[in-house]
From TrEMBL, chain A:
Coiled coil: none annotated. This is MHD domain-containing protein. Transmembrane segments: none annotated. The keyword DNA-binding does not apply. One of its GO terms (biological process) is vesicle-mediated transport. It comes from Hirundo rustica rustica.
From TrEMBL, chain B:
It comes from the Eukaryota. Residues 799-810, 868-881 have a biased composition (Basic and acidic residues). The lineage of its organism: Eukaryota, Metazoa, Chordata, Craniata, Vertebrata. InterPro entries: AP3_beta, AP3B1/2_C, AP3B_C, AP_beta, ARM-like, ARM-type_fold, Clathrin/coatomer_adapt-like_N. It comes from Hirundo rustica rustica. It is found in: Cytoplasmic vesicle, Clathrin-coated vesicle membrane; Golgi apparatus. This is AP-3 complex subunit beta C-terminal domain-containing protein.
Length: 418, 1234
């Protein structure tokens, strides 16, 4: 299936290659570079490129292109999903999936890739199994290794591969048994010029951090499970149980993982926690324009909106911006034409405002369209959909774990058209 | 970064760092120098970019200059990730510097003044020691490598040596050392080289030596190296093979698996046979993980040598029958790569795969679902033919576009045809297996893995009834939140689906709204979907959305939007005018691209109803002054030419302008100018005659031959001359004919003939190895091919056992199914008849031996950690499966039966059940009263009276017939058997004619059955076990010899759980245990039957006989005569066969018959007692012939005994199996001598 993998950085260096079948020359990447040049923007590089003898399927993550070489028919999503899984694994191992991290850990990267695919077919992709096979690097371990001569490769054989709950390793032991659940909801919305909502929905995830000894069997129930319109599960969840009782019943993996992601039906009205007043205009002749944006909170059940950041992709004709912010700080990058305004917390008494003059390229026609505003924000201790965890029960183990649930609401793809 | 050096410089400057990036030649290019370049920020593929200044160079310079050691904090560290502590970094730094200094052939004067000067001097002489002292980590080592070229880069230091020494000497040395840490270090550096695409093949000999290294990490890295380079260095790679072969025998399953993995990854054609063997062996390994690895190895071997296909298919077939989830995904992947066309291999495993699916790992699920989609398309009928679904379809699918374009008659015709075909069709009933697939895949829509969701979605799209397809929309929309690459693929598929099934995605219309931050390719796809979803009700919303898009900064996107509007306008008549007006407004847009695109779209729209729009055409005519985009200009000209009658005044003027600028136009515009001229000439020749001639003259001398040709052609056509004549008359018709309006279609139309979600679908072209999605068959193929012969009897000795059985995986018994069904039918009756001395419970227990095996299986599985966790799911599946099979009735019926037998009630219920019971009872009573001779015939008589069971299947009937024919075995009583034997043989001789050509296997002719002792009463502590060869075909397996075992409990306590344990058969030998005897009361006796396949050898079968307290090692050694089964043949046939078995296969022995053994009767009796043979009729009175076949291999054994004068006789045995022949001769002579 997957023949080879090339990692390419933004400047076009192939800094790592791995072949699972016979070697494919680096020159195959030239087709990719060609497509990349044509696409101008990195985002527009087509994920699937057909070349005379191969097909290239690539993803772009953290300024790295993962380009895989395929020779025969394969579901493209299969490859894309796998490549993302590889990137996730690097992230998991090295804390970041950057070029430097990969170069610094090139041997571990290689060992990982070797284990993840066999003859191009995924073999071990569960992080728990991989960690049994190859220990992630830590400062302490690299010091110890250098003194004792021991290695990163686990010397115990990975029994997880044999089990039918491959996501959990055997013999987990903790002194403090804890289970944390973060209910994170994101609001995706498009707000039109007049401030009315064109489209809004809530996407949520429950990320868990579970450090429990032995083989705990957990079941998590909600106060209002009917809210969840569409749910996708981690493989550990028993589907039948959810279907019949709307209870999440599972033997959890060890450590951090995403338990479910869900969507709250778009039919429900979504409470938009902020509003934006904007006045952006460009004058035809003076090669300047006015920019005036105010962000304010709508009523949010008494919670404050924090971490507010606004980013705006200004039209190409904009040369510079002279603005004053009543709160927070703004930056404008004249190369990428991106305006970023870091607002921080919104206090209803004094609404944050950003106002000033836009300098346009002289002689250039005025931009036709006002740029849309992308807003980010965060509200702690609130799930905007109203989802509430009812209880967490544990079976199969004797001890009493510490349980914690946290709610956060964030802006997802939150866009205001102007 | 400095300015880039010129191309030539880079190549020429050997002393500089600028070596060609791609040079892998270790001798000249140098691995380290090019390493350095790779790691640096030099430009893409090394062309025309300068090299960076290496930060440590400055640090080093400082050092060399005699300054005190600087404090190299992490921030000065070139590769420092900021994670190290200061101390650690310093250490690492120093190691690097030491190594670097080693490279300097002559040290500058300054360096010895550094505090560590002494050490450094030492290290220069012994590089290996130096590394030992340092124990650098991998990443410090890398740095050292990178520093190396600096030595060469500094001409001041480099004193005349012609470059660095052969590259990998130090690595080789490290690999040869006996320290694991050094080896590891070296291997890490080598792997780093491989990772960067450097050539490290010259290290092969040094690396391959370490394949047996004890250190696991070294070993793994060596494997990495080996797999990478073995193909290039085949001979050397062979050195490593023995290590893997050893690994294949390791008791640890993980080591076996990894050995197989590497062995199969080494692409060396010579080892194909070894790989084949290893795969075959691993395919029947105990561990499912090893079997999984074997499945992975199959495509590897196949790609190496496709001649092995047939053998590999056998392995695949075997592995497909595997019932563990671990193997399923991998073997289907192998199936898809090796033999996707062998869909017949799936039949028997179809239901199992459906049921296991949810527990298979994600990647396997994708492969299985895709394969099952194809399978289902060949095996089931289309669910969308039925009238009901048709209606639903029409609800889902609107015909707006059809109504516009397709003429109404056509529609009516369609409808009629549909109605007609409906009438013909039978009401559709979905195959339960089809339903099973749909039901079992549905939960996977909830998978976190986008590939799985997509796979299920395409399965539903291709297989589900239209009314059910809707469920996938929600899941697909969910995927739109994922990474942009995932979005891209999903949107492509949604675009295709939304053409066929618009209703499905309509509720999610808003999810396809476009954000300004989406990448352009995503925007365009979303636009496509929105356009496909547009209908009369939602068009206003969509157009409002489009309006915002038109003002976007992304011009490609705007152009796409205009086209989308055009499509909406053509498809939905209601809004055509609105759209047209909007587009006309766009004509005054400042962006030329937008205007051009609008012109093109407007042209297409106008073509539909030109008359009303002369205003627009006029407006557009004005645009020719401004618009420069060729396509747009061409479109305007075409419009004016086509509708010149609507704008009679403007048209000639436009032509005048165009004639003026003709020479500067693009080709495509020139062609349209010529067209325009021609049309005007035909309609308005007065005004445009001269202009036309001018244009044609210009075109005549154009550079482009297309234009010249066109001009010539048109001139001939329109200007009347003597020659042209006839054509001229039709010129007007030719040019001004009504042209059909173009149809604006989605590019995704009809893409669904590719399997959705596939690469081919995405590319809209057949990819290599794409398996065509077959069309539905007209007639459903036989659904019974999928029937797995599930053992129908579920007789158990107790209820608990039954329950246990329910809990374990349903399919765990898929091995050897064919046998058990037979045994299920034949056993109860034969058991009851045969076990004359047994209690009634014994008879029912004999039926359950197959079950015993199953239990064993499940036990094994729980060892393999297939435990309770999955139980609940399994239970569900099983339940569903049972319902589907429809055989649910039989277990309960059998249960009843079993219970009836157990309780042994006198009152006989209806049917055969009662008969079996009574007959068994009678048999046992008659036995106990030891009226031996009668019992057999009596039972037989009874059997005859019994009418065949009404419920019995055909198979059962045949078996019953056989039983009717065969006298039941009254074995321990010789007297009765003598009679029956001779009777049977005589009868046979009479009834059968010479015409029967094939030797028929007959039920045995019985003679005295000898019992042997298996366990003596003393040795068995009161438990006595005897066995005899009952000479009946073993019900489970025709290749097994049935061994009847009689167990008597002579102790004064109960013996419980009597069973066979741990059979240790020799190679090829198989043992089918008898079912466990739960309890044997003191003084009681039980008789059971077990089957042993002796492989036609007289080797003993060893096994343990266990009770709840003890284990006894016992063995059964068969006399050679028991290894065969009688065969009936005619005299001619016998002679014919004998003729074939001459020479080596013939053994002749002379013997003297003793006094008492001279009558026919005795001779026959003695021979048949010595061997399980059947008599063959013979014309001569002094000759006796017998024939048999060996049980396992079915080789013929022919015996001829010829009586000479007096007491001498000659015995001839013809058989392929010479050993059997010789032994048989001995045995028969011994028997006759008695």
């Amino acid at each position: 299936m997957i023949h080879s993998l090339f990692l390419i950085n933004c400047s076009g260096d192939i800094f790592l290659e791995k072949h699972w079948k016979s070697v494919v020359s680096q020159s195959v990447c030239d087709y990719f570079f060609e497509a990349q040049e044509k696409a101008i923007d990195v985002e527009n590089v087509p994920p699937v490129i057909s070349t005379p003898h191969h097909y290239l399927i690539s993803i772009y993550r953290d300024k790295i292109f993962f380009v895989s070489v395929i020779q025969t028919e394969v579901p493209p999503l299969f490859v894309i999903e796998f490549l993302h899984r590889v990137a996730d694994t690097f992230q998991d191992y090295f804390g970041e999936c950057s070029e430097t991290a990969i170069k610094d850990n090139v041997v571990i990267v290689y060992e990982l890739l070797e284990e993840m695919l066999d003859n191009g077919f995924p073999l071990a992709t569960e992080s728990n199994i991989l960690k049994e096979l190859i220990k992630p690097p830590t400062i302490l371990r690299s010091v110890v290794n250098s003194i004792t001569g021991s290695s990163n490769v686990g010397d115990t054989l990975p029994t997880g591969q044999l089990s039918n709950i491959p996501w959990r390793r055997a013999g987990v032991k903790y002194t403090n048994n804890e289970a944390y659940f973060d209910v994170v909801e994101e609001i995706d919305a498009i707000i039109d010029k007049s401030g009315s909502t064109v489209f809004a929905e809530i996407q949520g995830v429950i990320d868990s951090c579970i450090k429990l000894s032995g083989m705990p069997d957990l079941s998590l129930s909600f106060m209002n499970p009917r809210l969840l319109d569409d749910v996708s599960f981690h493989p550990c969840i028993r589907f039948k149980r959810w279907e019949s009782e709307r209870v999440l019943s599972f033997i959890p993996p060890d450590g951090n993982f995403r338990l479910i992601s869900y969507r709250v039906s778009s039919q429900n009205l979504v409470a938009i926690p902020v509003y934006v007043k904007h006045m952006i205009s460009f004058k035809e002749n003076t090669s300047s324009g006015r920019f005036d944006v105010t962000i304010g909170p709508k009523q949010n059940m008494g919670k404050t909106v924090e971490g507010v950041v606004m980013t705006v992709h200004m039209p190409k004709a904009v040369l510079n911006m002279n603005l004053t912010a009543t709160q927070g700080s703004y930056t404008f990058d004249p190369v990428t034409k991106v305006l970023t305004w870091d607002v921080g917390k919104i206090t209803p008494q004094k609404l944050p405002n950003l106002k000033g003059i836009v300098n346009l390229q002289s002689g250039a026609p005025k931009p036709e369209e006002n740029p849309s505003l992308n807003i980010q924000f965060k509200i702690q201790q609130l799930a905007i959909s109203g989802l509430k965890v009812n209880r967490l029960d544990m079976y199969g183990e004797k001890y009493k774990p510490f349980k914690g649930v946290k709610y956060i609401t964030k802006a997802g793809k939150f866009q205001v058209r102007t | 970064m400095a300015a880039s050096p010129a191309y030539g410089e880079e190549k020429g400057g050997s002393s500089s760092l600028g070596e060609p990036e791609y040079g892998h030649d270790p001798a000249s290019g140098g691995i380290f120098s090019s390493d350095y370049k790779r790691w640096g920020q030099c430009g893409r593929r090394g062309r025309g970019r300068a090299l960076p200044v290496w930060p440590p160079l400055q640090a080093l310079a400082a050092l060399l200059g005699g300054e005190a050691v600087p404090e190299p904090g992490p921030e000065r560290h070139p590769m420092g990730t900021g994670t190290g502590t200061g101390m650690w970094m310093r250490m690492v730094m120093w190691i690097g510097i030491r190594k670097l200094l080693r490279q300097l052939p002559v040290g500058p004067a300054g360096w010895q003044k550094t505090p560590e000067g002494g050490d450094v001097a030492e290290e220069v002489t012994s590089p290996v020691l130096a590394t030992e002292a340092g124990q650098p980590t991998c990443y410090s080592a890398l740095r050292a490598d990178e520093l190396r070229p600096l030595a060469g880069a500094k001409p001041a230091v480099d004193t005349g040596t012609t470059g660095p020494p052969p590259r990998h000497d130090d690595l080789k040395e490290m690999l040869d050392s006996n320290k694991d840490s050094l080896k590891l270090e070296a291997m890490k550096r080598i792997v780093a080289m491989i990772a960067r695409g450097k050539n490290a093949s010259d290290l092969f000999p040094a690396v391959v030596k370490n394949v047996a290294c004890k250190n696991i990490e070294v070993k793994k890295l060596v494997y990495v190296y080996l797999v990478r380079y073995a193909e290039e260095q085949q001979d050397l790679a062979l050195l490593s093979i023995s290590t893997f072969q050893r690994g294949l025998k390791d008791p640890n399953q993980l080591i076996r698996a990894s050995a197989l993995r590497v062995l199969s990854s080494i692409r060396v054609p010579i080892i194909v046979p070894i790989m084949m063997l290893a795969i075959k062996e691993a395919a029947s390994d105990m561990s499912p993980y090893v079997r999984k690895t074997a499945a992975h190895a199959i495509p590897k071997l196949y790609s190496l040598d496709s001649d092995q296909k047939d053998q590999l298919i056998e392995v695949i077939e075997k592995l497909l029958a595997d019932k563990t989830t671990l193997v399923a995904g991998s073997v289907v992947m192998a199936f898809e790569e090796v033999c996707p066309e062998r869909i017949d291999l799936i039949h028997k495993n179809y239901r199992k795969l459906c049921n296991l699916l949810i527990d298979v790992e994600e990647w396997g699920q994708v492969v299985i679902i895709n394969m099952l989609t194809r399978y289902a398309r060949t095996q089931f009928l289309s669910p969308n033919q039925n009238g009901l679904t048709c209606q639903q379809e029409s609800l889902l699918e609107e015909n707006t576009e059809k109504a516009f374009y397709g003429s109404e008659e056509e529609d009516a015709k369609d409808a009629k045809a549909e109605a007609a075909s409906l009438a013909k069709r039978k009401p559709y009933v979905m195959d339960p297996d089809h339903r099973l697939l749909l039901r079992n895949t549905k939960p996977l829509l909830q998978s976190r893995n986008a590939a799985v969701v997509m796979a299920v979605a395409q399965l539903y799209f291709h297989l589900a009834p239209k009314a059910e397809v809707g469920v996938i929309a929600k899941a697909l929309v969910r995927l739109l939140r994922s990474h942009s690459e995932v979005q891209y693929v999903v949107l492509q598929n949604v675009a295709t689906m939304s053409i066929k099934r618009r209703g499905m995605f309509e509720p999610y219309l808003k999810s396809f709204y476009i954000r300004s931050t989406d990448p352009t390719q995503i925007k365009i796809l979303k636009l496509e979907v929105l356009t496909n979803l547009a209908n009369e009700t939602n068009i206003s919303t969509i157009l409002r959305e489009f309006q915002t898009y038109i003002r976007s900064m992304d011009k490609d996107f705007v152009a796409a939007t205009i086209q989308a509007i055009g499509r909406c306008a053509t498809n939905i008549g209601k809004v055509r005018d609105t759209c047209l007006n909007g587009l006309v407004q766009l004509l005054s847009n400042r962006d030329e691209l937008v205007v051009a695109e609008s012109v093109v779209v407007i042209k297409k729209l106008l073509q539909m109803q030109p008359a009303q729009h002369s205003e627009i055409i006029k407006h557009m005519a004005k645009l020719t002054d401004n618009i420069q985009v060729p396509m747009a200009r061409a479109s305007i000209l075409w419009l004016i030419g086509e509708y010149c009658e609507h704008v009679p005044k403007i048209a000639p003027d436009v032509l005048r302008k165009m004639a003026k600028s003709f020479t500067n136009e693009e080709d495509i515009v020139k062609l349209q100018v010529i067209n325009l001229a021609a049309k005007l000439y035909l309609t308005n020749s007065k005004q445009s005659k001269l202009l036309t001639q001018y244009v044609l003259n210009l075109a005549k001398y154009d550079q482009n031959y297309d234009i010249r040709d066109r001009a010539r052609f048109i001139r001939q056509l329109i200007v009347p001359t003597e020659k042209s004549g006839a054509l001229n008359k039709y010129a007007k018709k030719l040019f001004l004919a009504q042209k059909p309006a173009p149809i604006l279609e989605s590019s995704f139309k009809d893409r669904d003939h590719f399997q959705l979600g596939s690469l081919s679908h995405l590319l809209n072209a057949k990819a290599v190895g794409y398996q065509e999605l077959p069309d539905w068959p007209d007639e459903a193929p036989d659904p019974s091919v999928r029937n797995v012969e599930v053992p129908e009897w579920t007789k158990c000795t107790s209820r608990e056992k039954r329950k246990e059985k329910v809990e374990k995986p349903f399919y765990s018994d898929s091995e050897g199914e064919s046998g058990p069904t037979e045994s299920a039918d034949s056993e109860p009756e034969s058991g009851s008849e045969e076990n004359s001395s047994s209690s009634s419970s014994g008879s029912s227990s004999s039926g359950t031996e197959e079950e015993e095996e199953e239990e064993e299986d499940s036990g094994e599985q729980s060892e393999d950690k297939e435990e309770e966790e999955k139980r609940p799911k399994r239970k569900d599946k099983e339940g569903s499966h049972k319902a589907i099979l429809g055989s649910a009735g039989s277990p309960s019926e059998e249960e009843e039966e079993e219970e009836g037998a157990k309780k042994a009630k006198k009152k006989a219920p209806q049917g055969r059940k009662g008969h079996a019971e009574t007959s068994s009872e009678e048999a046992s009573t008659s036995e106990s009263s030891s009226s031996g001779s009668d019992s057999g015939s009596e039972a037989e008589a009874k059997q005859r009276k019994v009418p065949p069971r009404s419920k019995a299947s055909p198979k059962e009937i045949s078996l019953l017939d056989l039983d009717d024919f065969t006298p039941p075995p009254p074995q321990p009583i010789p007297s009765s058997s003598i009679i029956s034997t001779s009777l049977v043989t005589d009868l046979e001789g009479l009834t059968l004619t010479d015409t029967s050509l094939t030797p028929t296997l007959l039920s045995p002719a019985f003679s005295a059955v000898k019992t042997y002792e298996l366990l003596h009463r003393m040795a068995g502590e009161g438990l006595a076990v005897e066995y005899c060869f009952s000479r009946r075909p073993f019900p489970g397996d025709p290749h097994m010899v049935a061994v009847q075992i009689q167990i008597s409990n002579n102790t004064d306590t109960e013996v419980k759980n009597l069973r066979v344990n741990e059979p240790k058969p020799l190679s090829g030998m198989r043992i089918q245990e008898f079912p466990e005897i739960e309890c044997l009361a003191p003084g009681d006796t039980a008789t059971v039957v077990m089957g042993i396949d002796f492989c036609d050898s007289t080797q003993a079968a060893n096994f343990q006989l266990c009770t709840h307290t003890r284990q006894f090692y016992v063995s059964i050694q068969p006399p050679v005569g028991e290894l065969m089964a009688p065969v009936f043949m005619s005299e001619n046939e016998f002679k014919k066969e004998q003729g074939k078995l001459m020479g080596m296969s013939e053994i002749t022995e002379k013997l003297t018959l003793p006094e008492k053994c001279r009558s026919d009767h005795t001779i026959v009796q003695q021979v048949t007692s010595a061997a399980n043979v059947g008599r063959v009729p013979c014309g001569a009175s002094n000759e006796y012939r017998f024939a048999a076949k060996t049980v396992t291999s079915g080789s013929l054994v022919l015996i001829t005994l010829e009586r000479r004068e007096g007491s001498t006789a000659q015995l001839t045995i013809n058989s392929e199996k010479m050993v059997i022949g010789t032994m048989l001769v001995k045995d028969i002579i011994q028997a006759l001598a008695q």
